[in-house]
Amino acid sequence: MDYTFEITLKVRDYECDLQGIVNNANYQHYIEHTRHEFLRSHGISFADLHERGIDAVVARLNMAFKLPLRSGDSFVSRLALHKEGIKYVFIQDIFRLPDERPVIKAVVETVCLINGRLRDCEELNSLFCL
């Protein structure tokens, strides 16, 4: 996979459940943070888009859990992207460090609402090379 962006993070104690592993909901936080940092790295503020009436929203999310993370683990969250019709598709994978073992594999389909209407977004199209 040719990834476009990556960010390294570390598991915090409060993200773990009673089993001592990261609660499954937190993986969604990790990949959302990765998407936001990706946008920020290209000069696009998610909050600024919203203030201008542009809302990128998740339409579908599919996550396959491979290996649990534990408190203190470092990991890298990577993304690749492409466009399918009106959908902006993020392929997002998390790997444990330092051994690079796969933790989750996710596909996130997003769409843009501009002033409440489903539309293409010029700012996102530029990131997707359109």
Write the layout of secondary structure elements.
Elements lengths: L4 E6 L13 H18 L4 H6 L2 E12 L8 E11 L2 E11 L4 E13 L2 E3 L2 H6 L3
Antiparallel strand pairs: 1-3, 2-5, 3-4, 4-5, 5-6
Q: What would you note in describing this structure?
A:
This protein has helices spanning 24-41, 46-51, 122-127, and strands spanning 5-10, 54-65, 74-84, 87-97, 102-114, 117-119. Strands 1, 2, 3, 4, 5 and 6 form a six-stranded antiparallel beta sheet that branches. The radius of gyration is 15 Å and the shape is elongated. It has 130 residues and is an alpha+beta fold. The protein contains three helices and six strands, in the order E-H-H-E-E-E-E-E-H. A hairpin with a 4-residue loop joins strand 4 and strand 5. It has one domain (5-127): Thiol Ester Dehydrase, Chain A.
Distance from first to last alpha carbon: 20 Å
Order of helices and strands: EHHEEEEEH
Instruction: From the 3D structure, determine the CATH topology.
Output: Thiol Ester Dehydrase, Chain A
Helix percent reads 10-25%
What class do helices, strands and sheet pairing give?
alpha+beta
Indicate the multimeric state. single chain
What is the gyration radius calculated from CA atoms? 15 Å
Look at the structure and give the mean pLDDT.
95
CATH top level? Answer: Alpha Beta
How many DSSP-defined strands? 6
- Number of separate helices: 3
User: In CATH, what is the homologous superfamily?
Assistant: Hotdog Thioesterase
What overall geometry do the principal axes of the alpha carbons give? elongated
As for the number of domains, it is 1
